[in-house]
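Hello,

Following up on my earlier ticket. Below are the two sequence lines again, exactly as submitted.
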Amino acid sequence: MPAAPDPRVAPGQIGFRAYLWQFKSAIVAAGVAEAAGIAGFGLGDGSIALRVLAEPEAPTTRRLIAHEDAALLCMAVAPDGQGFVSGGDDGRLMLTTAAGEGRLLAEVPRKWIEHVAVADNGSAIAYSAGKRVGLLDGRGGVIAVLEDHPSTVAGLAFNPKGKRLAAAHYGGVSLWWVKSEAQTPKRLSWKSSHVAVTWSPDGRFVMTGTQENEMHGWRLADSADMRMSGYPSKPKSFSWSRDGRWLATGGADVVVVWDCKGKGPMGSRPEEVNQGALVTAVAFHPRHSLVASGHADGLIRLGRLADNSGTVLEQVGNGPITALSWTSDGRYLLAGGEDGAAGILDFGTG
Amino acid sequence: MTQSSAAQAPVPAPAQTPVTVLTGYLGAGKTTLLNRILTEPHGKKYAVIINEFGEIGIDNDLVVDADEEVFEMNNGCICCTVRGDLIRIIEGLMKRKDRFDAIIVETTGLADPGPVAQTFFVDDEVARRTKLDSIVTVVDARHLPARLKDSREAEEQIAFADVIILNKTDLVSAEELAEVERRIRAVNAYAPIHRAARCDVPLDKVLDRGAFDLNRIVSLEPDFLKANPAHGEPGHVHDEHCGHEHDHGHGHHHNPPHGEPGHVHDEHCGHDHGDSLHDTTVRSVSLTVDAPVDPRRFDAWIGELLATQGQNILRAKGILDLKGSDKRFVFQAVHMIKDGDFQRPWRTDEKRFSRLVLIGRDLDGKQLQQGFDACRA
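Thanks for your patience. The regenerated structure is below:
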């Protein structure tokens, strides 16, 4: 049985089953702790709602308090796939296992931990609080604290091997090595407030979204700048195709997909899929050229890059979609919204 | 005031959380006012954003301390600066909206209110989730004259204000108080001034003002008119509403001579308002046209004006009688960011007019009036 949507089938013909829940607090992030088989929705009220993937119809949803009496501001799947790492406005970086154990990984008094990133290979964790970035190894041991940023860090991204970290801020991006020795960051400069960052799977590009509603990129080989404008809103959600060729972005009323082969996307005409309300979240299918998008009106769409065809999959609440992610096998799609609506779409129904 | 023109399917707009900005010099009494707002029994919960911890503690569960980060927008508009810290924090606060009903931003004494105000119009996400209710400036009756001498910010905070709390009035004489009020009026003729000893003003004068709500622009008369002693009485401030001809040719109009007690410095004094006699360079200018205005001419003129002088124009508001419309057109701007819309219809019993008030630095009232005059239909 194919465990994912078949790319040969038109998006409108793809079968799936949707399971929906409504929480009282905004969904901040969603991800699957795959080793534990658990989907987690990080909620604004400081808790993480857990669903067993294999038991979508189970009547109860487990709730674990990750940040007591505080807001959860960011969340990522833990390196070992057994739980979640989250940051809160209590200044705490917590590891919460699917089994229900909580562990304090870092604390920055009186600051918010606003961003967290986990390297794809699970080798490192990074978090930011104000101008500070903390680097931890995959087990939570401290590697380094990096203070040298010109302003508050607004986004974090590891390179594919987890050896380097990009931190976005006003004026550009700082690139750090994941190591404990003292270091000076390499700065990629562009006068703008950079509000989100991503590193291409082939390691060649670092891309940001800016306050001025643009994408900015740097080709690392020669630090060449790339500007991609025309967005009506800030592009803050990015997702790469598995081969690293395509970068899907939110921030317009259509998913804007840049072709990053060769010298990069600047000057090229992007592909467009999933026309609708403002795109607030994007997620490339991990295996096929299919792009899922979440929109400001709560709709989830699926589009096929090959012929720009697309379809509405589901309505997940009525507010902007804030979280969207596929499991690595591409069978399940998790979605969550600002109004607390959450859903799991199962494409493995044959 | 968002300028995004994206044609998108309508998105259900969540209720916008009101934001009150408290500005004022260090020691003026901002925190005292803040604590009053937080502790009075109004049943409302506030999230408070501060940029510095003062000596007085803040009596609230949800206090966010953030470093002030002013960012210049890289969009070709040099005065388009925003507060990056506010954008982030408001976004973060909104993840747990159930914790509060309204937001108060307490700026540092040295903060420029411009970027704070602009943040609420420039950032789409902030504009979607919140609405700027008003800018409240607390000034210290005793120390304001010195502050106006040594700080540009003190002047800007008054210029930007929708409401001014003139605090510590018990520490000055009646003459000093009158002089301080006169100086405030010279900068900002439109914001109501509330005298207070320990920020003891009714909170309904401070909260829920809707100062940036186009629908609530009802009149553009200088505030002192409402409490202005009658013509001929001591303390009366002469202006275009006195009922006597505002004759620019013989312009002393009952004003005691320059240097005499009671003299009001104005455009007729003959001295430059930026000189040492005056420590303020910001003033309020009111422009009036008593005939309908041509919409296209006005658009072109105000667009050009804000593009070229927007840096100096801190705030602007207008009510316009546009030719071809039976509705009042209301207008406002913060620096170069402008916003306008049709409001209620003109009443049959009301005299139509077009008035624009500008608060700004180095404004040439005569030239501005000529420009506005040329917009007549």
